[in-house]
Amino acid sequence: MSTETSTPGGGSAGGDPAAVVPSKGLHAGILDLGDSVMLGLASTAPVYSLAATLGLIVAVNGNYTPLILILGFLPVLFIAYAFRELNSAMPDCGTTFFWARKAFGPWAGWLGGWGVALAGIVVLANLAQIAGKYLWLLIGDGSLADNTWLVTATGVLFIVFMTYVNHRGIRLGEHVQRTLTYIQYISLGIFAVAIVFRIAGGAPEGQAFDFEWFNPAGAFADPGAVVHGVLLALFIYWGWDTCLALNEETENPAKTPGRGAVISASVLVAIYVSVALLVMMYATIGTDGIGLGNEANQDDVFLAMKDVVLGPWGWLIIVAVLASVLSSTQTTILPTARGTLSMGVHGALPARFGKVHERFMTPGFSTQVMGAVAVVYYVAMSFLSENLLSDSISAISLFIAFYYALTGFSCVWFFRSTLKDSARNLWFRGILPLLGALSLTAAFFISAVQMWDPAYGDTQIFGIGGAFVSGVLLLALGVVLAIVCRFAPSTRGYFTGERAEAGVVRGE
Fold this sequence. Notes:
By secondary structure, this protein is mainly alpha-helical. Helix content is 67%, strand content 4%.
């Protein structure tokens, strides 16, 4: 049998003072605030995200890159407040799925859950590809990293291993995550300290710090470049919401995960801006050598700098990126599995998705399904077309913007009757989440327009950018699946309201 808990939410769309959150049998209270912050930081794959994105932003915005990183952070911070407020009222591991359903009804909830799952599955393919490549870069002369079969097989093994770790229990996963997090941050710290010493020793081709890099007037002299740069920066912060998906396994689930989300998002911007400044001062934004403007370096600016900065210890950067993507692989499976667990418990998916392993107290079936789907998608896309795989990964910005914006709008609507109660409510439940949601909605459409251009990305389909086509098709697949669930005997009650909340199924 399921037990139901009720948490004070300060009012809902229906005027109720509390929302009912059914207990699902997860290992309650096993994570503390420190664990929550660590998971939020690790989920973004910060070392890899910065290495792979910094050169692209520099190519568009030049020396204004630190300002762009801050501007891209603001909508994310506003949405983090939306997550925090909704979690305080409804600490359900389904997050966007559950909250959008409470605010706007079953269809919005189902599509919100699809957005979370879709982003996770697609990004797992990217992370597996990078992990496989970087592992073989460490071996021999690195030429094995060009072997598609070997890299793909290695990536599949990484997904399978991380799925196994997550299936065996949240504490084992937390230990693995802590180890990987220490490796990547210690390596990044050594890299940053080495740059500081080289700058202090007089980098021959470096550039001095300039407050002009943070001047909005100078940056907005080219508004189009600012928008493009912010869109690139916006999504390197994605992933901190993992700590919200683990709310039912965290101490004080109504408060701790929300605090963890805001803290981890804030720490990330400090890390990104600080490291970006150091790298810019040492390597400059030039187009030659290790310059950040060199097109040859844009896929990974750290890889281009590692030997110059660290000499024979340059392999530490490869280790840092590998640890970064592996930790993100594990933490990406966590929210997708818990999202589908919640959908199973609430009847939006077949009841088997709502099963919790009796011994490990994890979403057993959901975790296995997410891992299996990610493997199938990764292998299929890898051998169908590596370029199409790359473009489908580019389309992830659409999925993230969709479910983040939906969460922001859900916050405003759910708490609409309480916005006048205090200045705090007005800002943190109304104005800031609304600004974040509107910004991300704009980002969604701007990204879609950019992806429509056949010159965008590596492929084109019917004269349209492959990233746009793959993104739209995957989002549309969610609508098709929702319609199927609407009429399927096991899930139609979720849409019609004729079915009570499903009890958690123990066993397996």
